[in-house]
């Protein structure tokens, strides 16, 4: 059984809002949100880590490319535990690369590097960690998407209105790059 807490972000959260308290969360019982076709589950965020890092999973079906974006102050880790995920990344000099990641594979994207990903197999899962001097961005998922109590994937993809993308950078260190083109081979 997981304890529920009321926080400034949610009426019921499985993550204690106060830093400095050990806690445990059962599989799948973190703070969940639907965004695009994916289910994002946050297990630790800025409130628990003094804005040092966050820890989350993102699972979804084979689908479309998640829009290109960057984080000016945040470093992001992609560790694939199920399925396959194609990670696209560009360094600060404009050199692009892509890699198909399968279970056990790891991808790292430094701050200020455009990146995107695409689930390549049904029910793929990424374990993500983001850290940096600017804090953490885990509340971005429920702000751009929608908080959910549902354990599974959304019935229909939740694609935000285009103007909503513009509100995100000021609050969560996520800047979308409309019109960004990947010059890699993209099968």
From TrEMBL:
| Molecular function terms from GO | quercetin 2,3-dioxygenase activity
EC number(s) stated in the UniProt entry for this protein? 1.13.11.24
Entry keywords, A to Z: Oxidoreductase
Pinpoint the Cupin type-2 domain residues.
61-119
Q: Which Gene3D superfamilies match?
A: Jelly Rolls (2.60.120.10)
What CDD domains does the database record attribute to this sequence?
cupin_QDO_N_C
What the entry lists under InterPro entries is as follows: Cupin_2, QDO-like, RmlC-like_jellyroll, RmlC_Cupin_sf
The protein here is known as Quercetin 2,3-dioxygenase
Report the source organism.
Streptomyces rimosus subsp. rimosus
């Amino acid at each position: 059984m997981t304890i529920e807490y009321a926080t400034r972000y949610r009426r019921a959260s499985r993550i204690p809002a106060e830093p400095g308290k050990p806690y445990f969360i059962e599989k799948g019982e973190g703070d969940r949100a639907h965004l695009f076709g994916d289910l994002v589950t946050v297990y630790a965020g800025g409130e628990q880590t003094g804005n040092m890092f966050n820890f989350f999973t993102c699972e979804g079906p084979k689908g479309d490319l998640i829009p290109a974006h960057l984080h000016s102050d945040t470093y992001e880790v992609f560790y694939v535990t199920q399925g396959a995920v194609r990670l696209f990344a560009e360094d600060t000099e404009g050199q692009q690369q892509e890699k198909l990641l399968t279970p056990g594979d790891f991808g790292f994207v430094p701050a200020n590097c455009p990146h995107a990903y695409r689930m390549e197999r049904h029910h793929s899962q990424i374990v993500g960690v983001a850290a940096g001097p600017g804090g953490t961005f885990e509340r971005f998922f429920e702000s751009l998407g929608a908080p959910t109590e549902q354990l599974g994937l959304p019935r229909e993809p939740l694609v935000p209105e285009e103007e909503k993308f513009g509100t995100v950078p000021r609050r969560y260190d996520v800047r979308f790059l409309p019109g960004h083109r990947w010059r890699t081979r993209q099968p």
